[in-house]
Amino acid sequence: MPSLGCWGLPAALLTLLCCSGPAEMTFEVDIWPEKLAVETVGSRRVNCSTSCAQPDSGGLETFLTKQLVDQQPQWQQYLVSNISQDTVLICYFSCAGMTRSKSLNVSVYQPPKQVTLKLQPTRVAMGTAFTAECRVAAVKPLSSLTLSLFRGQETLHNQTFAGAAAAAQEVTTIFNSTAQEGGGPLTFSCQAELDLRSQGGDIIRSVSEPQILQVYEPVQDKQMVIIVTVVSVLLFLFVTSILLCFVISQHQRHRHRGSYGVLAAWQRLPRAFRMQSA
């Protein structure tokens, strides 16, 4: 027991000496949110905090418009406005002569508000190719965009734009497909999906107005051509027969009128001349 008492005091002093350094030397700085996606010319609240109990100073570094909304010794809240382009926000605190900071990447996006779909042609025979043109108004960033073509609830095609420029621009994509089913109209639509989860945002979707594709079977079309042809021939024969009847009747009428004219002229001749001729 005495030995323990002898060693207890030195151990306690050693512990105090080792841990008596300023706790603030190990302070941390945090920023919330850790990632931020903002629609063009938007505003967001940003919190800066520190583990230092009594920081000397702190703040938010940015070239954007900022307003201090609230603060306490260990945290500050700012309203950052007019965010029009990708940028970096930096929170910093000074504690016991040391300064530490933490950055926040801000991504500016432009949602796909207008999506249009155009089918060419709008009526095709079964097994015939057609094109679906999907057009999306200015959207950003393209690397997070996915365009999907739907037939009813079935997904026919997906297209991504990984590696595309980040600048907002209009996107036009053409999908080639084949009409596989007949017996009625088919409904198509185009969906634009902007996935901002990796940048601290959400998934934004926009769908075009549905477009109808009329699909018919070629056999039915041939039958219709045959029917139209037969009707046309019968109509031609009918009209031709009427014309022939008219021409024949007119010809007979002229012949009949010609015979009566010769007889009338003979009767008008003088009797003597008729006898002489006889």
TrEMBL record:
Domain of life assignment: Eukaryota
A GO CC term attached to the entry: uropod
An example of a Pfam family matching this protein is ICAM_N
Localization: Membrane
- Which UniProt keywords are listed? Cell adhesion, Disulfide bond, Glycoprotein, Immunoglobulin domain, Membrane, Repeat, Signal, Transmembrane, Transmembrane helix
Q: Which residues form a coiled coil?
A: none
**How does this protein lie in the membrane?**
Single-pass type I membrane protein
The record places domain Intercellular adhesion molecule N-terminal at 26-114
Instruction: Please state the span of the N-terminal signal peptide per the UniProt entry.
Output: 1-25
**What Gene Ontology molecular function terms does this protein carry?**
integrin binding
Bilayer-spanning residue ranges: 224-248
Biological process (GO) annotations held by this record are:
cell-cell adhesion
- Which family does this protein fall into? Belongs to the immunoglobulin superfamily. ICAM family.
Q: What's the name of the protein?
A: Intercellular adhesion molecule 2
* UniProt organism field: Chinchilla lanigera (Long-tailed chinchilla)
Q: Which gene encodes it?
A: ICAM2
